Amino acid sequence: MKHHDFTGILPPQYTGTEIEATASIELSDEIEAKHFFEEVKNRLLYVNNWHEVAGIISARFRVINKDGAEVNRSVTKGDYLKIDIPGPGSTEGDGFDWVSVEELKEVGDENMQSLGFRVRPTNNPGGSKNETAHFYSDEATSNFIITREKLTITAWIVDRNTKPNADVESLTDKIRDTSVGISAIGFFSKLQWQQLANGLVKKATD
User: Fold this and answer.
1) Which of 19, 67, 88, 152 has its CA 20 to 30 A from that of 164?
2) Is residue 87's pLDDT more than 90?
3) Burial 31-55 (b: 16+ CB within 10 A, else e)
4) 3-state per-residue secondary structure call for 30-76
5) Cβ pair 141, 159 in contact under 8 A
6) Within 13 A of 14's CA, how many CA atoms are on the CB side?
7) What contacts 146, CB < 8 A, 6 or more positions away?
């Protein structure tokens, strides 16, 4: 299915691999659709709860503010996400992978509502080095977009320009980022994002 990025946050695909996951639901009337979109929006923005939304999910995410403090609120532009994936963590990331929230937009009219945010691999805000603490290079982005078009709500998650991070000094991190990055491109991200997309649009009574 072809999706449209009404928010304009999705960058062009120019290198590496693209990974997509999508899920949608059709509601019975416009009032219900608008109400459920707000619920889906809250699920998306409360990143700390993603492991509950997705059910069985391999990684856990925490929102970190600009000052480096963990916060329990909806994510905003300028925040960091601290990611705990299975297996060995990044040495430079203090055992975690890190991304920054570089864009967040919401648009809408009577028949359409859409919200999305984009994250990019970044350095550990509490670290001593200015090097990317993530298994992907900083060319990669993950883009999380939810849209209501009349009665249909869609969750669309897109990784673009994904390549393993080779720009690290630590040999341990270099081996780890290459192996994790390759497996993420091939399987890990697709499975994780599909679980999240499914959970975002799942009705509580389903």
Assistant:
1) 67
2) no
3) eebbebbeebbebbbbbbebbebbe
4) HHHHHHHHHHHHHHHHCHHHHHHHCCCCCCEEEEECCCCCECCCCCC
5) yes
6) 5
7) 37, 40, 41, 44, 114, 115, 116, 153, 154, 155, 156, 200, 201
- 111 pLDDT band (50/70/90 cuts)? very high
Cα dihedral: 87, 74, 24, 140 (round 10): -50
Return the residue matching tokens 């990317």.
Answer: 132
Element housing 22 (H / E): strand 17-26
Q: How many residues does the chain have?
A: 206
Mean pLDDT, rounded, for 112-123: 95
Look up residue 190 and give its DSSP letter: H
Reference 153, options 20, 42, 38, 21; nearest CA is 38
Question: What predicted TM-score, i.e. pTM, was given to this entire model?
Answer: 0.89
d(CA 182, CA 171): 17
Give the model's confidence band at 32: pLDDT under 50 very low, under 70 low, under 90 confident, else very high: very high
- Up-side HSE of residue 124: CA atoms within 13 Å toward CB? 18
What mean pLDDT is reported for the chain? 86
Q: What is the CA radius of gyration of the chain?
A: 17
Once rounded to an integer, what is the mean pLDDT over residues 32-60? 92
